[in-house]
Amino acid sequence: MSIDLTRRRFLIGSSVAATGLLTGCDALVQSTTVNDILQRAESLTMGAQRLLMGHQPLAREFSEADLSPVFKPNGTSEPGSEEYAQLRETNFADWKLVVNGMVQRPLELSLADLKAMPSRTQITRHDCVEGWSAIGKWTGVPLGLILEKAGLAPGARYAVFYCADELEQTLDGSGKYYESIDLVDAWHPQTILAYAMNGKELEVAHGAPLRLRVERQLGYKHAKYVMRIELTDSFRGIWGGKGGFWEDRGYEWYAGI
Ligand SMILES: Nc1nc2c(c(=O)[nH]1)N[C@H]1C(S)=C(S)[C@@H](COP(=O)(O)O)O[C@H]1N2
Ligand SMILES: [Mo]
Known about the structure:
This protein has helices at about 1-15, 20-30, 30-55, 80-90, 110-115, 145-150, 185; strands at about 95-100, 105-110, 120-125, 135-140, 160-165, 175-180, 190-195, 200, 210-215, 225-230. It is about 30% helix and about 25% strand. It starts with a helix and ends in a 25-residue tail after the last strand.
């Protein structure tokens, strides 16, 4: 999307820059109407993809032999807050996952609570929008089981994941990492909250103590350092209003692969 717009500007810029059309076009690009159309196009893509997929097929799973020797950590590799440092010191014994918002029973789950729940292990390929991929083995609790425990309130439509890290330093805190998915992805069998990777405790660089795996979506949807999950009917009021840290900075909310 942004590449196309840049290209358009370049083409217009090279042919008719002197006519003043460039300014007109820039204004058009920024107008809400155009943004609305782009957003509608995006949701059409999502609707079409979901219609075609129908019965929730699984992302491809691989074997142990396919595991990448190196799985590159990306984005934050260690949250900088004092709170996180303290939690890390005791190996997350005092950490609790908060589940609240539009639920019947708000939850606070320790790592031990999560590990006592049924788990799923899956070997999948992680695709980052920057162009690299890696195959890793993830073990964790299916998000659907946690949602069942909490009980959704009528009208809940999205799960929002609040993370411990601030990827961009800002005065208002809007640089905190967060993500959101709809309930279709939330209930998908391969959507898990992982506490282990490649058969070992999840490392800090990969999101300890808990990170989301949402296997049919691009890497930036896989929130690391998850502290709280909020069920909501809209993410419009959260930070930039686009449903995630990178979405607020121009990436698509639906990042299906
Ligand atoms: N909290 C948090 N989650 C995050 C990020 C981040 O910077 N902070 N980066 C995202 C991006 S762009 C990718 S590709 C993956 C990288 O996961 P990895 O570090 O385990 O490779 O985490 C995603 N989740
Ligand atoms: Mo990424």
